[in-house]
Every structure is written in structure tokens, then in C-alpha cells.
Amino acid sequence: MATRVFSPAARTTGGVVDIASPVLGSSGLFTVLLGAALPLIDFFIVNVALPTIDHDLAAGPALLELVVAGYGLAYAVLLVLGGRLGDLFGRRRLFLAGMTAFGLTSLACGLAPDAWTLVGARVAQGAAAALMLPQVLATIHASTTGARRAKALSLYGATAGLAMVAGQILGGVLVAADVAGTGWRAIFLVNVPVALVGLLLAVRTVPETRSDRPAPVDVPGTLLLTLTLFSLLAPLTEGRASGWPLWTWVSLAVFPFAAAAFWRVELRADRRGRTPLVPPSLLALVSLRRGLALVLPFSIGFGGFMFVIAVALQQGLGMGAVVSGLALVPMAVAFFGASLAGPRLVRRWGSRIVTAGGLLQALGVALLALTVWRSWPDLSAWSLLPGMAVAGFGQGLQLPVLFRVVLSEVPAERAGVGSGVMVTTQQSALALGVATLGSLFLSLAASAGVRDALVVTLLVQLAAVAVTVVLSLRLPRRVG
Known about the structure:
By secondary structure, this protein is mainly alpha-helical. Helix content is 78%, strand content 2%. The chain has 17 helices and 3 strands. Strands 2-1-3 form a 3-stranded antiparallel β-sheet.
């Protein structure tokens, strides 16, 4: 089944052309990568701003959790649907709609007069991100081939990793700068001009692609996937701050039944020749299935680490937002360097680069745990540098390659759903990491102290890294 490429510059009848060669130019790639960076930056940018938001809006722990969780939940549960809508209506069109909505909802976040309004705006912002992000990978997958696609996917992985780290660095700088007296609001308002620039570039540089035979939206599957993810993530993210009320336990009890119902509905639709939201037949692809199994523990550890380190440095050591953000700079720089070296290394060593990256990340996390144990409370950004750099380099060898592995065998006509499944797995795992490792850290900090809580959390993350190393040995050796 061919993928049709709709180019604004096409001169054929109706502006529709079938193009086998790559049509996503460098400017277009830059534009879609900008669209990929924004949602990931905003998932993490609030971590360093939470104390300021609490002070300004008198939010309290439960509402602060919702500021983070509301975005993550809306983002996670709607990603696969966003990918399907792109296949159906055109990925460029959905990218433009998502970018517009992201800019408007960011403005609403920045102007929110109270905590509940901010929570509502964050939920809407997460939904906008879910509309925009799946179109990025789907556009790359449908409009590039061969070495060009491999390079584009490597750049996507580098962008994703850097965005997650840069979010907290940028958040710290903006909060401390207090631009025009906006304080924490600047972390959202800065998205507005960026979104405008992205829209102008997208109109000119991003080609239109869609599935040649788009499938209708799977309504039962969409509703059941939403229920499944919500019943798991909502209680885990809100439970601790709310004191674990009855609804959290009821929700967790619903989760396995919702997951089983979702799988049965999707399997039945697949067997009957329909196109389910998440086709079980797609999971028959070895590279996708094994790659997703690795993305899950990697992202749980990454999401939890980023949240915990921000809280530990600011509340445990009294560091300012800028200093706590700058402590992550070595990780960002090392990640970027590894991402640039990755494609060349992959050509020679294949997926074993992921294994090497996991071992390096494990070494970095172990160094961080040892440094925290020995140097607390005289811990500084400088003393954290070796561990941060080694861990970041290891992560940079893993994430971009994993994205390539997951999508390597996905047919072009399923690019939207394939990318939607991958980013849903990643985003859900990031949110799960914040919920589980974050709750573990905060609970231990209240009883055992911040140092011991941070060390234990890092050791738990080390266990997650060990799982990724073992799973990486099962990846297809050759990376497409």
C-alpha cells in the first residue's frame, strides 16, 4: 500500500503526486523537530517552577501534582488517536492544528489567574501536544527513505532527549530571570512566539502526507485505551498528594480489566479485517515489540530521575532554580555528543550500541548515587558533573537508536499509528516514572531524609537500567 505525498508545490492535477524519493527537506525537518521539542520541553519545564507556582497561586501539593499530571495524562491518552487522525486527514494539517492549539493553550497557562485554571489549561495543552507530536515521526517515516530516514530518526532521538533535559534548564533560567515580572508564567508564554515561528515555517516547508487508504477512527478502542491509561496513571500521580482516597484504589482495580477489554476489542477488530487503534498485528513486528519493551524501563527511569533531581536539589539543598537547572547541563551536552556519534557507531556495531549505552548509563547513575552518599549536604553542580556526563552519554547512545529500531519495519501507510504507539509508550512511561519514583522519593524523604531518599531512588533507577541492558541483547542486531 503506497503512501501519498501531498506537496504544496505540486503541479499535477489536484496537487497530488506519488513521490518515491525523499520530499522532506532540511528546513522541513527542522520545523517538525521544533514541533517535537515543544511538548517534551513542557513536560519537564514545570519541575523547577513548582515552588514558585505554589507560592504565587497557593496551589498546595495535590493541585501541583495535577499541574504536572494533567498535562501528562491528556498527552499520553490521546497520542495514538492523534496519529490516527494524521493518517486520516493529513499529517501536515494536523501538525498545523496542533501547533496552533499548543500556542493558544500555552498562552492560557501563562495567563491563568488561579491554580484550577492552570490545571485546565495544562490538560488542554497536553491534548494539543498529542495532536502535534505523532505527525512528526509519521511525516519523517512517510517522506524519507534509506540513509536520509536514518539520519532524520537519529536527529529526532537527539531532539527528544535534549528537549527533556533542556526543559528543566530553560525552566530554571526563565523563572530566575523573571522576564518583565512574569515569574513562572514565562515558562509557558515563551511557547507563543516559538509556535508562531513554527506555524510560518510549517506552511512553507512541511509536505502533506497521509495514508493512501486511511482507516476510520476506532471509537471503542480509543475509549478503552483512554480508560486503561487513565485508570493507571491518575491514581499513581495523585494518590500520594491526596492521601490515597478510595477512588485511587478503585481506579487501580479497574486498570487490569480495562487493559484486558482493550486488547480483546483490538484483537477482534484486527481478525475481522478492520483497522483497530493499536493493531495487534503491528506488535508482530519483532523490532517494534522488542524496541518498545526497552523504551518502557528507559523512560520510567528517565522521567523519575528528572523530577526527583529537581526536587532534591531545590528543596533538599536549597539550590535556586538556575543552579539546579545548570546541574543538568553536563548531561545535555554529553547526550548531544553521543547522539551525533550514534549513526556512525550504529553502522559498525548495530544495536549493540544500545547495550554499551546502557552500561555507561548504569556507571553514571552509580557515580551519582556514590557522590550523593559521600558529599551530602555539600553537594554541588560541580561534584555531580562526572556522573551526569557519563549517564547522559549513555542515554544519548540509546534513545535515538531505539526510535530507529521501533519504526524500522513499520509500513509507510501505518506510520501514524506506529509513531503514535511509540510516543504513547514513551510518554506513559515518563509519567509513570514521575508517579512511582517521585512518590518513592517523597515518601522516603519525609521519614529517612532527602539524602537517603535520593540514594535509594537512584539505586531503583539503576535496577531499571539493568533491565534495559538485558533487554537490549534481544534487539535485532541490524538497525534499519
